[in-house]
Design goal:
heterodimer, A: Aldehyde Oxidoreductase, domain 3, Aldehyde Oxidoreductase, domain 4, 7-stranded mixed sheet, 18 helices, globular, B: alpha+beta, Ubiquitin-like (UB roll), 38% helix
Chain lengths: 789, 179
């Protein structure tokens, strides 16, 4: 018997290739006779294209073709949005066409104007510079807060006030009533800063077309290749779905930005047939900054009503969300469905009302980025809670404890039903792990060094495991959100699993193998996980929203159950008993205490069906399953951050960060810890240094490279303290909840609350993210002047 | 106009015809098909393209191929032993989960080898300082720091370094001589 690998720190099967440089990322692939594409992008945020002259580009050395929007036939559609939001007047959101190449107008810096296909990349880039475009530059609207102001230019004719939707959730009347009776109201204004996801591997694609069988192959940096195939074939290009194979090979990080279908891969797929050669494109980092979907970018006004004991009575949240120039694949649901539903946090707030105005601006499309809506919600809730605690002189942990949800299942006033959790347990464990008891001594010690030390808390809830298809459908999703899996048992008992989930760093090849090995009682090394290829995997909805193990794992377990059920039939036949008499445990099919067959013996018998009762038993051992969850999962946790600030410069360092999370059951703690670390780093980045900035008037991207956009470096971060509490998810087969986004969800509020705690003695009560040294210094100066006055 | 560039890559002499504007990283990736060295930016900020040139780490995206003429280059493909066994630093990254998507990993390993060359028993601060020029978006650096520490310890205690390790030490020795 093999010890179950579930819960073990198994080293990753995928690591060898990454450690030796033998990974196979899209840009590492070179196809015979491949050509190279370069996109000409708009240098203006908003302009009418009067004329494009491609003559010199077409005549340039090595050029095979130059295409503009005018060259794409009518049959080529725009990029679709996958989620229909219905507004407060029961009207559908405004959904402007999202062309692959600009049709008469460009709407953001980086918008796609033309593509050049040439023998070499250098030739393609050189020729792109020879395209002459006559732009009539138009005024631009850039910031969410400006979009609906009178006199602002319209990004799209169908939305003259730049409004995609005004959407609301919650009982407005109940909230108004509760506010009227409140003993205390805390009110804050927030900007949730715009971020660039910055997966280290830039987006890339290689499309090829085979005239012989009229089929396309697209290698692309995608988190969900089946979705890419469906959208590209049926909705964008009008090509048969079964003649398009999409392969997402090794993908170097995603963080949301590679969920979406982008113009480049659609144009390449279309062009590959026209030039009858493979076409390759890899974004350079500048293109990534201008054309990857960005994240966050909310402006919010929020209020929390409390009674005299610090109990939450109601919350009112008014948010304007910048959607950018076009609706990216999931843009519409991120600031609505994935945001407002999380505003209850871990608390019993009985009444919540949230109104979200989604606006178009002349900026890159904004869509899901690690956490997607949930970090924004957590930031609102946890900043309000800590501000209320300070105003009412209640300790941070205490005000949270007074309001925690303690009994489950718990129906929130914002649509979700939490199945399980233990928020007191995660908070208490975090307080202990962070040594909160020693904080005042650390604060004094820091003060002796001239540093301001502060401590900040955030407790968070997330809704993961997207999603029960019936709920998603009722909320506007244009797709189901199940997952597919297939378990192929080979004659020797080795197993290949095909999953619709996609790993771009998460380590599915190991975690999923542990699940399969544990269930079948075989060695982890005897299980191979295949993902990311529509030619091999039956179907899939992909990886995002911390859904892989909760939903993709569920599909694998369902398929494993079918494998075991069939194995029992085979074993019953071989051992001349009834199926119901066969037990399967520890890799053995047994009848009573003395008689058993190993999994390998049964697998072999499935493929060597001598003396088989063929009328009741098929040969072979290969099963597939689709798993559609019945509810979301609700990972939750407590994050505690300590910062030190140099009051002379405003320089702020995170000196200690503790996260205690409840992800339900854990299959591989090593991998889970890694996910938490990475999320925390991105959350600290958002809180302190990262910010995507466009010039407010011209719409030029000011943070278009790593020289301008502050990515967290090793030196900017501390080592982290990570712990767990476990309440297993009640409704999926593995009892897992999802861990990929937690760090990014909890960290920003914890960090900013710590900064404000450090600055509180100086009279600073608010600071905007990112709390850069300049902003902190300014806040200190302003508070000093106010106190002097 | 093409120029011929001759150099040694992972111990083997190579020659290629390149355009004057061809970057070292493109020589490695496109001409020699050594695709373990990655391009994450073009501004020498992210470090995914880090290789060793005559024993010193350089960013191969910010150097012309012709500038590397006559040099000895070590890429990630040359770090493991000839039989494929991982170098102790690579093994430490696996053991300590110092990588997730793997894209920054080759650059991290190349930088880590340089850090331990300079600091055989590095402190956390020295490691973080040494990794300043290498971005990782996945790990938050926590496990990379642990991996470098463990890799350094393994190298201190290794009596028979792998081929990659020997090669690295030789290159480093040559670099010291040149200084």
């Amino acid at each position: 018997m093999t010890a179950s690998p579930i819960g073990a720190r198994v080293e990753r099967k995928e690591d060898y290739r990454f450690l030796t440089g033998s990974g196979r990322y899209t840009d590492d692939i070179a196809l015979e006779r491949q050509t190279h594409a370069a996109f000409l992008r708009s240098p203006h945020a908003h302009a009418t294209i009067r004329r494009i002259d491609c003559g010199r580009a077409q005549a340039a050395p090595g050029v095979l073709a130059v295409y503009t929007g005018a060259d794409l036939p009518e049959s080529v559609g725009g990029l679709p949005c996958g989620w229909l939001i219905t507004d407060v007047h029961a009207q559908p959101m405004r959904e402007p066409k999202h062309p692959l190449l600009a049709q008469g107008k460009v709407r953001y810096v980086g918008d796609h104007v033309a593509v050049v296909i040439a023998e070499t990349l250098a030739q393609a880039k050189d020729a792109a510079e020879l395209i002459e475009v006559d732009y009539e530059v138009l005024p631009a609207v850039v910031e969410a807060a400006d979009a609906r102001k009178p006199g602002k230019p319209a990004v799209h004719e169908i939305a003259p006030d730049n409004t995609c939707y005004v959407w609301a959730l919650g009982d407005k009347a109940a909230v108004n009533k509760a506010f009227a009776q409140a003993a205390h109201v805390t009110k804050l204004q927030f900007v949730n800063n715009r971020l660039v996801p910055n997966a280290m591997e830039p987006r890339a694609a290689i499309a090829s077309y085979s005239r012989a069988d009229e089929s396309y192959t697209l290698y692309v940096t995608s988190q969900n290749p089946h979705m890419a195939r469906l959208l590209l074939s049926a909705f964008v290009l009008g090509i048969p779905e079964h003649r398009l194979r999409v392969i997402a090979p090794d993908v170097g990080g995603g963080f949301g930005s590679k969920i979406f279908v982008y113009a480049e891969e659609a144009v390449l797929t279309w062009a590959a047939k026209h030039v009858n050669r493979p076409v390759k494109w890899t974004a350079d980092r500048g293109e990534a900054f201008t054309s990857d979907a960005h994240g966050r970018d909310h402006v919010t006004s929020a209020e929390l009503a409390l009674d005299a004991h610090g109990r939450f009575l109601a919350m009112r949240v008014m948010t304007t969300a910048n959607l950018g120039a076009y609706l990216s694949t999931f843009a519409s649901c991120v600031p609505t469905i994935l945001y407002a539903t999380l505003l209850a946090g871990q608390y019993t707030t009985p009444a919540i009302y949230c109104e979200v105005t989604g606006v178009f601006t002349n900026t890159a499309p904004v869509d899901a980025y690690r956490g997607a809506g949930r970090p924004e919600a957590t930031y609102v809730v946890e900043r309000l809670v800590s501000a209320a605690a300070r105003e009412m002189n209640i300790p941070d942990p205490e005000i949270r404890r007074r309001n925690f949800v303690k009994t489950f299942p718990y129906q929130t006033p914002v649509a979700l039903c939490y199945d399980t959790g233990d928020y007191e347990a995660t908070l208490s464990a975090a307080i202990e792990l962070a040594d909160v008891a020693g904080f005042e001594a650390r604060r004094r010690e820091a003060a002796a060094r001239g540093k301001l030390r502060g401590i900040g808390y955030a407790t968070y809830i997330e809704a993961c495991g997207l999603a029960p298809s019936n709920i998603a459908g009722a909320l506007g999703a244009r797709a189901g959100l199940y997952e597919a899996g297939e378990v192929r048992v080979h004659p020797t008992g080795k197993v290949t699993v095909f999953t619709g989930s996609h790993s771009h760093g998460q380590g599915h090849e190991t975690t999923f193998a542990q699940v399969v090995a544990g269930r079948l009682g075989i060695a982890v090394d005897d299980v191979e996980i295949v993902h990311g290829d529509t030619g091999r995997v039956l179907f899939g909805m992909g990886t995002y929203g911390s859904r892989s193990l909760a939903v993709g794992g569920g599909a694998i377990v369902k398929a494993l159950d079918k494998v075991i059920a069939k194995g029992k039939k085979i074993a019953a036949h071989l051992m001349e008993t009834t199926e119901s008499a066969v037990e399967f445990a520890d890799g053995k099919f047994s009848v009573g205490p003395d008689k058993s067959l190993s999994f390998v013996q049964v697998a072999l018998a499935a493929y060597v069906p001598h003396n088989y009762p063929l009328e009741t038993l098929e040969p072979g051992l290969n099963e597939n399953a689709f798993y559609d969850p019945t509810n979301f999962t609700f990972p939750a946790g407590s994050h505690i951050c300590e910062v030190e600030i140099d009051p002379d410069t405003g320089a702020t360092r995170v000196v200690d960060f503790t996260a205690v999370d409840d992800f339900g059951n854990i299959v591989n703690p090593m991998i889970v810890e890694g996910q938490v670390h990475g999320g925390i780093a991105q959350g600290i980045g958002q809180a302190l240094i990262e910010g995507c900035v466009y010039d407010r008037d011209s719409g030029q991207l000011l943070t278009g490279s790593y020289m301008d956009y502050a990515m967290p470096r090793a030196h900017d971060l501390p080592s982290f303290k990570v712990g767990y509490e476990v309440t297993p998810c009640t409704h999926n087969p593995l009892g897992v909840k999802g861990c990929g986004e937690a760090g990014a969800i909890g960290a920003p509020a914890a960090v900013v609350n710590a900064v404000l705690d450090a600055l509180a003695p100086l009279g600073v009560t608010d600071i905007e993210m990112p709390a850069t040294a300049a902003r902190v210094w300014r806040a200190i100066q302003d508070a000093g002047r106010e106190q002097a006055a | 106009m093409l120029s011929t560039v001759s150099l040694s890559v992972n111990g083997r002499p190579v020659a290629a015809q390149v355009e004057a504007r061809t970057l070292l990283v493109h020589l490695l990736r496109e001409h020699l098909r050594l695709t373990g060295t990655h391009v994450g930016c073009e501004t020498a900020q992210c470090g995914a393209c880090t290789v060793h040139l005559d024993g010193a780490p350089v960013k191969a995206c910010s150097m012309l191929a012709v500038q590397a003429s006559g040099a000895s280059i070590l890429t990630i493909e040359g770090v493991a032993a000839a039989n494929g066994d991982l170098h102790p630093m690579q093994a430490a990254f696996r053991q300590h989960h110092g990588l997730q998507c793997g894209f920054c990993t080759p650059g991290m390993i190349m930088m880590a080898l340089d850090i331990v060359e300079r600091h055989p028993d590095p402190t956390e601060a020295q490691i973080r300082e040494g990794l300043q020029g290498n971005f990782c978006r996945c790990t938050g650096y926590h496990n990379i720091v642990n991996a470098v520490k463990a890799g350094a310890a393994a190298l201190r205690h290794t009596t028979s370094p792998t081929q990659g390790g020997q090669r690295h030490s030789q290159l480093a020795a040559r670099r010291r001589e040149e200084r």
